[in-house]
Design goal:
By secondary structure, this protein is mainly β. It is built from no helices and 20 strands. It is rod-shaped.
Length: 295
């Protein structure tokens, strides 16, 4: 009562003399909910104990006039891309379409995003359990989801969006969709070079470190020396792990000197190594080491 129908204004039915039949009006409430068949009862009892009731209870069925709505989730295709793809830093648009039910009435559905290989903190702006309201006459609603620009080489990454009915009788098709964020960051390639791979004792190796690719982001590598038959501290000055950084769009190379040491031992032709390793595992090196000879 009061949710689906209204109780009669007066619970008492009076039969004047000569009247054998009375009607009691029950008003029903219209709603927008899809419901299973509902039932209530009308009952009758006498006020005077000497009167009798031949049929004191009747079952009444309320026939629902609302039909379920079907919601469908799709991803709008971006220009120049495959469906379900978005360039890093751009917006992907999801469309929720409704069919069935009564389009002249409002309705609701729940929308949310979920991470995949893409992180909701670093790669896209997440939406958590947002109730999407369709006004009367709305056949579809578009929901933009922003992706975030970064300068990390990550490869293509994926996140998901899904819908869930608010009304338990509504139905879904294509409940879940995925979006692939196309990484626009390119790997860097590092190169170590020297004009002379052999110098005499007490002289310097002039080393040039350069980078190609990796535009638009900081690219870093580690360089260090390691012994061959030449020993650090005895034949050359050890270079501990040194990080070199190339700023976004920085051109040219970085130059540094590696000193060799003199001694009184005739040990001509000793060698050691200069090594390089990118910090980002997706960056590359032309050659991972140079062999340097001390004559």
């Amino acid at each position: 009562a009061d949710k689906d129908f209204l109780r009669p204004d007066s619970p008492t039915v009076t039969f004047p003399d000569g009247i054998t039949e009375q009607f009691v009006d029950i008003n029903f409430k219209d709603d927008d909910r899809v419901e299973s068949k509902e039932t209530f009862f009308a009952s009758l009892k006498t006020i005077d104990r000497v009167d009798k009731v031949s049929s004191g209870r009747q079952r009444i069925h309320i026939v629902d006039n609302d039909s379920h709505t079907t919601f469908d989730l799709t991803v709008l295709q971006a220009v120049g891309l495959e469906t379900g793809e978005v360039n890093e830093g751009e917006t992907s648009t999801f469309r929720i379409t409704r069919s069935g039910g009564d389009l002249s009435k409002s309705t609701k559905v729940q929308f949310r995003t979920n991470p995949g290989s893409a992180s909701k903190e670093d790669d896209y702006v997440s939406i958590k359990k947002q109730v999407i309201e369709f006004d009367a006459g709305d056949e579809f609603i578009d929901i933009p989801v922003e992706t975030l620009q970064d300068y990390s080489i990550e490869g293509n990454e994926k996140f998901y969006a899904s819908i869930r009915p608010v009304n338990r009788y509504d139905k879904l098709t294509n409940r879940k969709q995925s979006v692939t964020i196309l990484d626009d960051d390119k790997p860097a390639n590092f190169l170590l070079e020297t004009s002379n791979t052999a110098v005499g004792e007490g002289n310097f190796f002039t080393i040039n470190a350069s980078r190609t690719g990796g535009e638009g982001r900081v690219s870093s590598a580690i360089i260090w020396t390691s012994n061959g038959d030449a020993k650090s501290g005895k034949d050359y000055e050890k270079l501990a792990k040194l990080q070199i950084d190339f700023l976004p769009n920085e051109a040219g190379s970085k130059t540094f000197l590696l000193p060799t040491l003199t001694d009184d031992v005739a040990d001509e032709g000793e060698f050691f190594y200069l090594n390089i390793r990118p910090l980002n595992r997706l960056d590359t090196v032309e050659e991972s080491r140079l062999m340097l000879t001390i004559n």
